[in-house]
């Protein structure tokens, strides 16, 4: 049954929406929430599912929507399946969970990619259920690869892998005409079309592709990089570019685009909404670390922060065209 009790994880790590419209919010300390999302109506907590092992809370790092009754969770204790209607949690046993799992991604062919501290794994057959042993293969990126920070699949099917210290990788999918081919790994893209990923640019926090086909890359300390892959050019947006007047921080943790073409960027100093065409921006939640920005199917922005006194926020456009920011 639904409840109106409002409670959010104190440290949000991921937000997703399922096919039924429920917003799922995950965070540290083992809390997993399912929240209603309707325009011009206050959200309600529909599900509150504790994720713990031997009464010790588990830190969730990412969510993957499997179907209408199942979520996969990457955690510091490995991969878990959450069965929504039963409100139960079950740990996987098909992959070495030592060191935890950082990210999960389902590609267009229903393979699931698992980012661990010791590298990247591709899983086939996971949707058959946890009781059936799926096929697990480690993808050879390079030796001694450090922590993977982000995984993203673009509209052409290529996977982009961002790491903490080892640069950017692009994995090209097998040819549609020859399904026996394996994914092609392009070695660390420390240089892409004469653009050099050096220093802080190596710490890649997020990827995003806009409706125009531009690929955006968020970095820790290097600003936001965007690329027109068709003409093979890369550009940066940072506080140095705007002389510190418009953008508030060079660390970009997450980003989404609005229908109007504004880029919403989560930083360690707040939420920056940038009008790309004019170069002007608005700042919200100043001096807060914005871990997650998620735009749901109804156009509502959900914002997850890092910090014990912060939690979950949402922004909804009013009838006047202005956005209203409310804490959940």
Low-pLDDT runs = 1-6, 176-200
Shape: globular
Average pLDDT rating: 75
The number of distinct helices, counting runs of at least 4 residues, comes to: 0
Q: How can the largest sheet be summarized? A: 4 strands, antiparallel
What is the terminal separation in angstroms?
20 Å
Q: Helix fraction?
A: under 10%
What strand order characterises the main sheet? 1-2-3-4
Kindly name the structural category: mainly beta
Number of DSSP-assigned strands: 32
- Determine Rg (CA atoms, Å): 20 Å
Range of strand content: over 45%
Topology:
Elements (H helix, E strand, L loop, with lengths): L11 E6 L5 E5 L3 E5 L9 E6 L1 E2 L2 E2 L2 E8 L2 E6 L2 E6 L4 E4 L9 E6 L5 E5 L2 E6 L10 E5 L8 E6 L5 E5 L4 E5 L11 E3 L4 E2 L2 E2 L7 E6 L4 E6 L4 E5 L4 E5 L14 E6 L4 E6 L2 E6 L5 E4 L4 E7 L5 E6 L5 E6 L5 E5 L1
Antiparallel strand pairs: 1-2, 2-3, 3-4, 5-6, 7-8, 8-9, 9-10, 11-12, 12-13, 13-14, 15-16, 16-17, 17-18, 19-20, 21-22, 22-23, 23-24, 25-26, 26-27, 27-28, 29-30, 30-31, 31-32
What can you see in these coordinates?
The two termini are 20 Å apart. The chain is built from no helices and 32 strands. The chain is globular, with a radius of gyration of 20 Å. The strands form nine sheets. The chain has a four-stranded antiparallel beta sheet, with no helix packed on it. The protein has a four-stranded antiparallel beta sheet with strand order 7-8-9-10, with no helix packed on it. The chain has strands spanning 12-17, 23-27, 31-35, 45-50, 52-53, 56-57, 60-67, 70-75, 78-83, 88-91, 101-106, 112-116, 119-124, 135-139, 148-153, 159-163, 168-172, 184-186, 191-192, 195-196, 204-209, 214-219, 224-228, 233-237, 252-257, 262-267, 270-275, 281-284, 289-295, 301-306, 312-317, 323-327. 0% of the residues lie in helices and 50% in strands. Residues 1-6 and 176-200 have low confidence and may be disordered. By secondary structure, the chain is mainly beta.
């Amino acid at each position: 049954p639904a409840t109106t009790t409002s409670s959010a994880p104190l440290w949000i790590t991921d937000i997703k929406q399922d096919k039924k419209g429920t917003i799922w919010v995950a965070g540290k300390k083992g809390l997993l929430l399912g929240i209603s999302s309707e325009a011009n109506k206050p959200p309600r907590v529909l599900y509150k599912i504790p994720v713990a092992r031997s009464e010790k809370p588990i830190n969730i790092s990412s969510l993957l929507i499997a179907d209408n009754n199942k979520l996969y969770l990457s955690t510091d204790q490995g991969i878990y399946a959450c069965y929504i209607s039963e409100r139960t949690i079950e740990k996987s046993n098909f992959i070495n969970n030592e060191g935890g799992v950082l990210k999960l991604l389902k590609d267009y062919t229903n393979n699931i990619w698992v980012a661990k501290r010791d590298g990247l794994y591709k899983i086939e057959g996971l949707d058959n259920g946890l009781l059936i042993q799926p096929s697990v293969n480690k993808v050879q990126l390079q030796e001694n690869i450090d922590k993977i920070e982000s995984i993203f699949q673009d509209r052409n099917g290529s996977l982009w892998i961002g790491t903490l210290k080892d640069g950017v990788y692009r994995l090209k999918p097998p040819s549609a005409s020859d399904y026996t081919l394996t994914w092609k790994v392009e070695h660390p893209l420390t240089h892409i079309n004469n653009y050099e990923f050096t220093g802080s640019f190596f710490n890649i926090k997020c990827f995003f592709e806009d409706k125009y086909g531009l690929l955006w890359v968020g970095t820790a300390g290097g600003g936001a990089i965007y690329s027109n892959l068709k003409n093979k050019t890369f550009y940066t947006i940072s506080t140095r570019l705007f002389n510190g007047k418009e953008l508030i921080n060079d660390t970009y943790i997450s980003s989404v685009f609005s229908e109007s073409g504004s880029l919403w960027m989560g930083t360690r100093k707040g939420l920056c909404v940038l009008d790309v065409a004019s170069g002007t921006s608005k700042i919200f939640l100043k001096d807060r670390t914005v871990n997650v920005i998620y735009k749901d199917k109804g156009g509502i922005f959900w914002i997850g922060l890092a910090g014990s006194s912060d939690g979950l926020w949402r922004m909804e456009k009013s009838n006047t065209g202005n956005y209203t920011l409310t804490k959940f």
